[in-house]
Every structure is written in structure tokens, then in C-alpha cells.
Amino acid sequence: MRPVPSNIAKPHYADTGVVKRTDEARVKTPEVIDRMRHAGVMAADILRRAGEVVKPGVTTEEIDIFVHDLTVECGAYPSPLNYHGYPKSVCTSVNEVICHGIPDSRALEEGDIVNLDVTVFVNGVHGDTNATFAVGNISQTDADLIRITEECMWKGIEAVVPGEPINDIGRAIETHAKQHKLGVVRAFIGHGIGENFHTDIQVLHYYDPRHTMVMRPGMTFTIEPMITLGTWQHRMWDDEWTAVTADGSRTAQFEHMVVVTDTGVEVLTAGPGAVSPSAPWKR
Ligand code: MF3
Ligand code: CO
Ligand code: CO
User: How far, in Å, from the CA of 224 to the mean position of ligand 3?
Assistant: First the structure.
């Protein structure tokens, strides 16, 4: 594991790889939300800068080192590192990899698509965001996949309204994906976040009539749809991290961390450093 300087505050799992979820209120105080805003902007800025490194010939290991060193320079801990034993500081998911791809020595090739998922831990809270990038020139099909996946994420974000059920998010995402005949991955979902990387709030990216938890101001969670050109079904590599599409079709993902407000939603990872041109997203 790449070392983290001793002056950086580490999450509880950093040394052992064992994650013990601590009790955490679903509705955050303004003080916690402020810290999450700071973590979110930092993660967004690192993600944007990591995206600028993506080009043919660069290995995902080089991107890992870039993200790790930049995170530490910013005074934060790269949350993935040793989370349930995860060996690297960022997830790099290429082509048919849905999520949790582990950086390795393979060089990116012209025409690849790669998702970078950046999470930082700073001032006791996590900031989590990801985006899919083109490696050089990509096919029109892949460019459309990336664009529609980002649209799916924003449709989900627009569905965040206080007092409404959380399955409005998945319904909006699934509807948009289906219009374009794309698959919605079901095995990986958005999640509550705060002092813990993953809390008990579940954000499905498809419609489930049973998920009727009401969204309340102060709740913080991620929306991170994974959309495929083919099947929604997945397989795991025997590294037990890398999730791929069962049919080998390409897949894209975008992720933002949000807080429910009194009137709608605030995107915590859409600061000035954010990838999306739609940012800032506030109402
Ligand atoms: N950032 C991922 C998410 O969006 C989680 C990565 S967990 C890791 O939830 F261990 F693979 F890093
Ligand atoms: Co996440
Ligand atoms: Co993430």
C-alpha cells in the first residue's frame, strides 16, 4: 500500500482494512454538511485534475499515484485505500468494467473509456464523486453512452425533493436509460455518506416500489448510476473487486454526492472544480 504521511488524519479502517460502521444520524447538522461540502469540493477538484491525466499510454497505476499524492497534498486521506482491504487509492474502471476496477500496469488505449472514482476523507467526513472519461478518440456509440449516463445522473439528482420517496430517483434514471435502450446495473447502488463511507441509506438506480423512504432535508447520499450498452447483469473477477458486465458490453458511470435541502437538492461535489458543465446545481 502506498504510504500516507503521519500528519494526515486517517479513517478507522486505514490500518486494519476492517470497516466498522459507526452510528450516524441520517439527517446531518449544518456543521457536518459544511464539512461534507469541503470534502466534496476537494474530491471534485481531484477528479477533474485526474481526468486531465487520462490519455493513451498512461497506466491506471500512474493515475492511482497521481490521485494518491494529490489527495495527500490537499491534506486528506484517499478513502478507498484499505477500505475492506481495497489495495489502491482510486477506482479505475475501463470499458466493460462496471465499477471498483483496481489500478494496474495496463496502459490506456485510444478508444477506451475509463471511469475514475475519487473519494477523500477530510475533517472526519468523506466526499465521493466519479466520472467517465474518453481516452483519445472514442466511437460515437461510446460517446453517446457517456453522455446519456451523465444525463441519467442529473435526472436522478433532479428527482431529489424533500417529502418525496427516494425511489423517485431510480424511476427517473431507469426511464431515461430505457428511452435509449440502455441497461441499468442493479447490483451496485448509491449510498448514504458522511462520517462513514457508506451508511444505511440505499439509492437504487432503477424503480423499486418498496423503496419508499421519504427524503428529508439534511440527508446526504450519492447518486451514481452505472449504465450499459447491453445487459444489466454483472460478473465478478476473482480479485473479488472488479465488477464487469456479464456480456462484455461497455458501461459508464457518473457520481455526485448530494444533500437534500428545504426546497430541493444541493450537489456537494459540484463546486468550481466539478466535471459537469451543469454545475453548480442548486435550487
Ligand atoms: N467510491 C465507491 C462508491 O462510489 C466505493 C469504492 S469502495 C473501494 O461507493 F473500496 F472500492 F474503494
Ligand atoms: Co459512492
Ligand atoms: Co464513488
Answer: 7
